[in-house]
């Protein structure tokens, strides 16, 4: 599935080519190579650079048509989808079609023509492409003939002692499996912090191989003959019989030569036939990108485990964080089963003490396991998201989450803070943290986790767990802003010292990861407008988004921190939406369109210096192509930024904000079994009117639960310019059963799952009540939103009365 074929001029693309991917292989097709310039395989060898096997910009494999003279396929212009490219070339009177396809463990290169007039297909392979610039050592055996094929083999080794003697930012004990780290080092510490000096004496010079793996390649095809030609190999397919011609050349990859004869792993289960479609007038590149994301994710998903690789390009790794934030978006295009498979894998591949590894080796051994915290929040959020789509929770997921809640409650101080380095970024010590830091990202994630835990416990009837979650939530909610919000800067510190109250004066966007669920938004208040203003001034550049302000010296501690990293734009859009920063959303949309118009995909990161001009060199300074957490980050950011859609335990809701832009439309979005076509248009601005299947929804902006019926529905969001009316704009952690409203007030019958956040707008003074009893509320500075938090379990009525008083 995906957005269909996209036409790309490779000779004008900043990268000079494009990637295709499937399961365990990937290939880069370029105009300079006139064919394939790189082939990668994700076998048992070390990662990530070791996945690059055949690399040569001038050409690993080129294909020509021999018809009188020889005509190469130029590959200057191609039709692309995430798993294949297609291009044509004329030779004589015939038009030939070349398709390069990634398929399991093979790259298939197929040439065909209806009337070839005696043409031959010639494939050239250069042994100079055998790549060796890896970590540790790689040795290649001499190529050998095997009938119609040429076979290659390499061996990758990384030895312990030389590995630990390296220097540089990623030196130390990275890439060493956790089970081995616990055996060879004299002290327990976070991966990346141990050095050669920490080795136990008996291991300092021991000839221990951290990785030792062989990889095999087989090149050729049954219709080809092969010969040595000018230091390379020439494969020739004989002419057809005049009734059409087709031949296939295959590059097969394996961990064992016996595997060449094995069938591919079964393909992934089918999903919905059509990808959701986004229409934004004047933003055609963004619309094309949006349609491509489901196919990009599928192209990088390992068939056997169901886990996604980090990127559909050469960058490998199976990361927990990347996989979970990718999986959180998959139900929106109809792949809740794939998302549940990811949740089950992560839950079933924990490290010691039920901790979730940051990543795994090819043998699925835990690597770089951080302290428990943020990753537990994401896994439980994913598990509940899948359960809401009708998928089964991973076995033991609830019990494991309950145990983590119990441990966290004991480990936290009276403010709900837990000391530690946090799981992000990669080099937390270089970022200014210590083992005594309490990281805002982790504290916020713990709060959101507790809110999820309370909701799940209420639904299970687990009163004790629900109460424990409420107690820890209360500690964090009371302390979060006093501990982390820097009133002088107008944003949240990255970390504070648990031995005192000093912040580290770094203000990263990724602190806001707790906004993955609307349950976390309470931590912003009452500083939403201030934080949104800070982000607009310091985290939004005229060409993109910054993770931390440009003036921060820690922006140079990692490549990604001084770049635009698309995943985190989700949280920027959420902040701008709630903080009413309309111009920030429009500026972001313009920057995204500009980048996608040049690259066509979401890179892992892109250097912001040089993007303001038109120099193509500036667009080449980026990380992994089609990084999945970044592609899905933009996917979600578009849904939330332009439409205001948010999702929680109680269903789908709209966070209203009138934006001066042309009408936008989203077709085929899937949620809880139903399919939605959603449109937004502005007719004067101001007050929103929501029409579901042609009938106006009054009193609130949350979709009533009766519409999650497996059918197809329409949602029209119209900003009318009419007089404001009382409106519930937030009912978080509760389902709406029915709602009504007029100029005098609003009423909603809701089914709550514990602590419910309520927000409302459109009133100058109001009485807010639950089941007829007045409830006090607060007004948030700068946003025009009033908010309250109430305990609602089961069915209740909430109401607003215009002109009332806040009790």
Architecture blueprint of SSEs:
Blueprint: E1 6-9, E2 17-22, E3 25-30, E4 35-41, E5 52-55, E6 61-67, E7 69-72, E8 77-81, E9 84-91, E10 94-103, E11 106-113, E12 120-125, E13 137-140, E14 144-146, E15 149-159, H1 160-164, H2 178-184, E16 209-220, E17 224-229, E18 232-237, E19 245-254, E20 277-279, H3 284-299, E21 318-319, H4 320-327, H5 336-348, E22 359-360, E23 366-367, H6 374-388, H7 397-411, E24 437-439, H8 440-460, H9 463-484, E25 485-486, E26 491-492, E27 495-497, H10 528-539, E28 540-541, E29 544-545, E30 563-564, H11 569-579, H12 582-598, E31 606-607, H13 628-643, E32 645-648, E33 651-654, E34 664-671, E35 674-685, E36 688-692, E37 695-697, E38 712-720, E39 727-742, E40 745-761, E41 766-770, E42 773-774, E43 778-779, E44 786-802
Parallel strand pairs: 35-38
Antiparallel strand pairs: 1-8, 2-3, 3-4, 4-5, 4-6, 6-7, 6-12, 8-9, 9-10, 10-11, 11-19, 12-18, 13-15, 14-15, 15-16, 16-19, 17-18, 20-34, 21-22, 22-23, 24-27, 25-26, 28-29, 30-31, 32-33, 34-35, 36-37, 36-38, 39-40, 40-44, 41-42, 41-44, 43-44
Helix pairs in contact: 3-12, 3-13, 4-5, 4-6, 4-13, 5-6, 6-8, 7-8, 7-9, 8-9, 10-11, 11-13
Task: Give structural notes.
With 807 residues, the protein is an alpha+beta fold. The strands form ten sheets. Strands 1, 8, 9, 10, 11, 13, 14, 15, 16 and 19 form a ten-stranded antiparallel β-sheet that branches. Strands 2, 3, 4, 5, 6, 7, 12, 17 and 18 form a nine-stranded antiparallel β-sheet that branches. Helix 4 (320-327) packs antiparallel against helix 5 and helix 6 (374-388) packs parallel to helix 8 (440-460). The radius of gyration is 28 Å and the shape is globular. The mean pLDDT is 94.
């Amino acid at each position: 599935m995906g957005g269909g074929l996209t036409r790309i001029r490779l000779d004008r693309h900043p990268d000079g080519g494009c990637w295709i991917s499937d399961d365990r292989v990937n290939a880069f097709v370029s105009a300079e190579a006139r064919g394939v310039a790189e082939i990668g395989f994700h076998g048992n060898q070390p990662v990530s650079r070791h996945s690059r096997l055949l690399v040569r910009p001038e050409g690993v494999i080129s294909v020509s048509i021999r018809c009188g003279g020889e005509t190469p396929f130029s590959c200057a212009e191609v039709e692309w989808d995430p798993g294949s490219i297609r291009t044509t070339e004329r030779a004589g009177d015939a038009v030939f079609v070349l398709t390069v396809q990634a398929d399991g463990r093979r790259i298939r290169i197929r040439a065909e023509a209806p009337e070839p007039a005696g043409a031959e297909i010639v494939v050239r392979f250069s042994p100079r492409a055998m790549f060796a610039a890896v970590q540790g050592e790689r040795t290649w055996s001499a190529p050998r003939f095997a009938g119609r094929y040429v076979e290659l083999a390499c061996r990758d080794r990384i030895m312990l002692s030389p590995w630990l003697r390296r220097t540089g930012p990623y030196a130390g004990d990275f890439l060493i499996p956790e089970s081995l780290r616990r055996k060879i080092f004299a002290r327990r510490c976070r991966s990346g912090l141990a050095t050669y000096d920490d080795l136990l004496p008996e291991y300092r010079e021991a000839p221990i191989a951290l990785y030792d793996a062989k990889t095999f390649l087989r090149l050729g095809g049954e219709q080809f003959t092969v010969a040595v030609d000018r230091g390379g190999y020439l494969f020739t397919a004989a002419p057809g019989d005049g009734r059409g011609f087709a031949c296939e050349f295959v590059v097969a990859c394996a961990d064992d030569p016996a595997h060449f004869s094995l069938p591919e792993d079964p393909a992934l289960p089918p999903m919905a036939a059509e990808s959701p479609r986004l229409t934004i007038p004047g933003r055609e590149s963004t619309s094309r990108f949006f349609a491509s994301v489901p196919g990009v994710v599928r192209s990088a998903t390992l068939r056997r485990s169901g886990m996604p690789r980090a990127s559909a390009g050469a960058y490998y790794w199976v990361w927990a964080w990347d996989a979970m934030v990718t999986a959180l978006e998959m139900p929106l295009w109809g792949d809740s089963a794939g998302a549940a498979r990811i949740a089950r894998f992560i839950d079933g591949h924990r490290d010691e003490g039920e901790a979730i590894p940051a990543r795994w080796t090819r043998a699925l051994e835990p690597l770089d396991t951080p302290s428990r915290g943020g990753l537990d929040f994401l896994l439980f959020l994913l598990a509940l998201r899948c359960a809401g789509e009708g998928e089964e929770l991973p076995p033991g997921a609830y019990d494991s989450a309950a145990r983590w809640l119990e441990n966290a409650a004991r480990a936290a101080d009276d403010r709900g803070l837990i000391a530690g380095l946090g799981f992000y970024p990669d080099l937390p010590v270089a970022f200014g943290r210590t083992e005594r830091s309490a990281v805002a990202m982790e504290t916020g994630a713990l709060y959101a986790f507790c809110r999820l835990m309370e909701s799940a416990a209420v639904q299970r009837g687990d009163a004790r767990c629900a109460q424990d979650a409420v107690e820890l939530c209360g500690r964090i909610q009371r302390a979060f802003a006093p501990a982390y919000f820097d009133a002088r800067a107008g944003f949240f510190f990255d970390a504070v010292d648990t031995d005192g109250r000093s912040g580290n004066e770094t203000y990263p966007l990724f602190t806001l990861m707790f906004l993955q669920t609307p349950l976390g938004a309470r931590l912003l208040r009452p500083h939403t407008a201030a934080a949104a203003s800070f982000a607009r001034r310091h985290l939004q550049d005229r060409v993109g988004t910054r993770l931390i302000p440009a003036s921060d010296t820690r922006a140079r501690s990692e490549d990604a921190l001084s770049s635009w990293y698309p995943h985190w734009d989700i949280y920027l859009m959420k902040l701008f939406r709630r903080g009413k920063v309309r111009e920030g959303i429009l500026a972001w949309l313009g920057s995204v369109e500009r980048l996608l118009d040049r690259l066509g995909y979401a890179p892992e990161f892109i250097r912001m210096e040089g993007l303001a001009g038109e120099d193509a060199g500036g667009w080449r300074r980026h990380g992994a192509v089609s990084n999945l957490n970044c592609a899905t980050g933009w996917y979600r950011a578009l849904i939330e930024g332009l439409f205001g859609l948010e999702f929680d335990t109680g269903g789908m809701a709209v966070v209203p904000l009138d934006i001066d832009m042309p009408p936008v439309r989203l077709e085929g979005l899937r949620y809880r079994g139903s399919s939605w076509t959603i449109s937004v248009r502005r007719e004067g601005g101001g007050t929103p009117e929501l029409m579901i299947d042609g009938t106006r929804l009054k009193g609130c902006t949350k979709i009533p639960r009766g519409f999650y019926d497996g059918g197809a529905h329409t949602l029209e969001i119209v900003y009318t310019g009419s007089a404001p009316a009382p409106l519930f704009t937030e009912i978080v952690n509760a389902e709406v059963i029915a709602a009504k409203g007029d100029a005098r007030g609003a009423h909603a019958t809701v089914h709550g799952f514990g602590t419910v956040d309520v927000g409302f707008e459109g009133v100058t003074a109001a009485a807010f009540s639950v089941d007829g009893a007045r409830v006090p509320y607060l007004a948030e500075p700068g946003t025009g939103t009033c908010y309250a938090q109430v305990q609602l379990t089961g069915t209740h009525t909430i109401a607003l009365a215009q002109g009332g008083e806040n009790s």
